[in-house]
């Protein structure tokens, strides 16, 4: 279930405001065992040790 994972992430990483949307994306990823995200905003995901954020320019 996504909601308990999202709550855990919000609490663990002290997420608030707009960053809650990033935490929800990470919660979906964790529940579905996805460990990488491709994004132009890698900095938004660096706090989450559960996943790895990759910039499109770093992928060939």
Folded structure, characterized:
The protein is α+β, with helices and mostly antiparallel strands. The chain has one domain. It contains two helices and two strands. The chain has a two-stranded parallel sheet with strand order 1-2. Helix 1 (2-12) crosses helix 2. The radius of gyration is 11 Å and the shape is globular. The N and C termini lie far apart (33 Å). The mean pLDDT is 97.
Report the end-to-end length measured between terminal Cα atoms.
33 Å
Order of helices and strands: HHEE
Mean pLDDT comes to 97
Number of helices: 2
Number of domains: 1
Radius of gyration: 11 Å
Number of strands: 2
Strand order of the largest sheet: 1-2
Strand content: 5-15%
Shape: globular
- Give the helix level as a range of percent: 40-55%
Largest sheet, if any?
2 strands, parallel
The helix-and-strand class reads: alpha+beta
Which blocks of ≥5 consecutive residues have pLDDT under 50?
A: none
Describe the secondary-structure layout.
Blueprint: H1 2-12, H2 19-31, E1 36-38, E2 52-54
Parallel strand pairs: 1-2
Helix pairs in contact: 1-2
């Amino acid at each position: 279930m996504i909601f308990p994972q999202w709550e855990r992430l919000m609490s663990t990483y002290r997420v608030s405001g707009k960053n809650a949307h990033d935490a929800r994306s990470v919660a979906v990823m964790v529940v579905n065992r996805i460990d990488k995200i491709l994004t132009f905003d890698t900095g938004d995901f660096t706090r989450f040790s559960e996943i790895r954020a990759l910039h499109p320019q770093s992928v060939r």
